[in-house]
């Protein structure tokens, strides 16, 4: 199988319907599977998927799981050579996935890929080319862990990292709106570290990829549309808690508790310990 697509959705039935409609058209000429993780939704998500998209492999979780746990449920089911983690609030264009796969096939050093994102009005979204927040840059410099994030700089966070919208570029950190990787990468580095809540998991995942020699890319020759959604305020207490807790876990993992990574097959990956939120 060429491609496995994993979507984690929680109470996003309306957006998910549009996303799946576009996705099924985009993969119709590919040997692909779509895996939907309904993370304890209360808005008829599972019933809609079963009725309107019977080709989708559906798993319903109860009770609600944090993103890393739900995502790993889907990633543990994949069969494809390539694995695409896709948000339920995005609409992919008809040839977007084929173009992204072609790019990854041509560059064997590429471990992960994001593509250009626009909003429903066609405006470029800066998070397409994700960089580390300045707080994380300072933290990683102080801890000596910054050497694997050489694409991030203090000034990049607000300006330089968002220029060259249409240029292919190597990046430090992937975002999970459209995160294309290889099954071989998952076998080598494992799945998301479930010690992280929502924030920090993709930073850790990207870091592990770079440690074993893979590169991450921003590919703007195609694009997706991110539908309007309610954004979480950066001053929300839960967001701040997850933000700084992720830095603590990251430091504890690489400076103290887990100084080395152990390669395990994806089917045998288990978190070293659980951190209750």
UniProtKB/TrEMBL annotation:
<keyword id="KW-0808">Transferase</keyword>
<dbReference type="InterPro" id="IPR029044">
    <property type="entry name" value="Nucleotide-diphossugar_trans"/>
</dbReference>
<dbReference type="InterPro" id="IPR001173">
    <property type="entry name" value="Glyco_trans_2-like"/>
</dbReference>
<dbReference type="Pfam" id="PF00535">
    <property type="entry name" value="Glycos_transf_2"/>
</dbReference>
<feature type="domain" description="Glycosyltransferase 2-like">
    <location>
        <begin position="4"/>
        <end position="145"/>
    </location>
</feature>
<keyword id="KW-0328">Glycosyltransferase</keyword>
<dbReference type="GO" id="GO:0016757">
    <property type="term" value="F:glycosyltransferase activity"/>
</dbReference>
<protein>
    <submittedName>
        <fullName>Glycosyltransferase</fullName>
        <ecNumber>2.4.-.-</ecNumber>
    </submittedName>
</protein>
